[in-house]
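Colleagues,

For the teaching module next term, I've prepared a clean inverse folding example: a structure given as tokens, and then the sequence designed for it. I'd like students to try predicting residues themselves before seeing the answer, so please don't circulate the second half yet.
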């Protein structure tokens, strides 16, 4: 179902739907706590839709809601919910959310500036576990200088074998404040707004505006090589623009964002956590349904609000280099990623999707700003 449920709060429900303004009042129905109400939608102009070449009309329900109400909007013809799923009416937060993004890096010197720049632009504080082989490695020197400059926090994991799960679990225990939201990504994963309405950080905050939400798993969108056999100049987000279809099996993997103090630990993989209490959602605000393959892999691939663009192989040359540098999670993981069937399995290029190309110029400028914090000796 097209359209989007943008805002649910005390007094109003706002979004857009792909019909004319004349059709809005009769086409949409408001559902509160599982029951249709008699409220009639008003049509509202949306200049932001025109600027993005989206055909649709804004809708607005004026309605008295209470904290904790579950709200959705449905198309009365199909009975399907407008994108955005069931939303909760949240109370006022005691303080702004602290948005933290955590990554462990091993020989990512060619890519770390872009990854940090992109996610800084999207509103996150960055913590990097430096799993270099040696303190003199270029990655380690870059991270140390960015730490000194206040761009990131660097955690020293130099020489620690397969440190990812230990680092992730320790970070969960470190942040116990419920106003802190912690996301866990790899350096080849970019948290991507589906509609480009807001920054990724702002959209994450929307999910956690409901106090009952303890974790959200965002599905992968796996990108292939885009036909590149060797490394070419430019950012990852502009060089690779072809991906697998949404229903590609590997896209069922998620990466998790979790509220501080709500999770015991990861479940033996870097994709999912074991919660102490609260709801674990997917990106359409529905409760996560894990597949029989295990936690961290969902039954359905859902790309509402946010997804994770996953550039796991890049070009063939870059894939071969990646296989040689080892893994931060396990010896087996390192061996798997050296196999050519891994490359061919992930080299999915059926769909042209330039979702992040429009941000490349801004990200490149941020990369140069961050690069300026590093010494000439490190950069030469």
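(Answer key — instructors only)
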């Amino acid at each position: 179902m097209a359209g989007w449920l943008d805002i649910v709060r005390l007094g109003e429900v706002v979004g857009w739907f792909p019909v004319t303004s004349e059709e809005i009042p009769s086409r949409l129905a408001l559902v509160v706590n599982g029951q249709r109400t008699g409220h009639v939608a008003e049509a509202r102009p949306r200049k932001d839709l025109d600027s993005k070449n989206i055909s649709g009309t804004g809708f607005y329900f004026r309605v008295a809601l209470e904290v904790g109400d579950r709200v959705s909007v449905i198309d009365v013809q199909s009975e399907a919910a407008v994108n955005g799923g069931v939303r909760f009416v949240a109370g006022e937060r005691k303080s702004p959310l602290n948005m933290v993004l955590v990554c462990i890096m091993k020989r990512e010197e060619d890519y770390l500036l872009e990854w940090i720049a992109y996610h800084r632009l999207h509103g996150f504080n960055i913590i990097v576990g430096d799993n270099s082989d040696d303190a003199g490695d270029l990655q380690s020197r870059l991270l140390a200088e960015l730490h000194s400059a206040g761009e990131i926090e660097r955690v020293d994991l130099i020489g620690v074998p397969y440190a990812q799960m230990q680092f992730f679990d320790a970070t969960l225990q470190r942040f116990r404040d419920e106003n802190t939201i912690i996301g866990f990504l790899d350096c080849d994963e970019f948290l991507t707004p589906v509609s480009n309405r807001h920054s990724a950080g702002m959209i994450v905050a929307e999910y956690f505006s409901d106090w009952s939400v303890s974790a959200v798993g965002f599905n992968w969108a796996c990108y292939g090589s885009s036909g590149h056999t060797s490394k070419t100049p430019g950012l990852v987000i502009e060089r690779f623009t072809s991906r697998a279809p949404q229903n590609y099996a590997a896209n069922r993997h998620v990466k998790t964002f979790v509220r501080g103090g709500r999770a015991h630990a990861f479940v033996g993989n870097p994709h999912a956590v074991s919660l102490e209490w609260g709801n674990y959602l997917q990106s359409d605000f529905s409760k996560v349904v894990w597949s029989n393959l295990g936690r961290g892999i969902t039954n359905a691939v859902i790309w509402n609000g946010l997804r994770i663009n996953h550039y796991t192989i890049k070009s063939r040359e870059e894939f071969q280099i990646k296989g040689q540098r080892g893994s931060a999670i396990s010896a087996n993981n390192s061996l798997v990623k050296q196999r050519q069937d891994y490359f061919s399995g992930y080299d999915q290029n059926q769909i042209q999707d330039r979702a992040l190309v429009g941000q490349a110029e801004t990200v490149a400028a941020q990369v140069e700003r961050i690069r300026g914090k590093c010494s000439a000796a490190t950069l030469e």
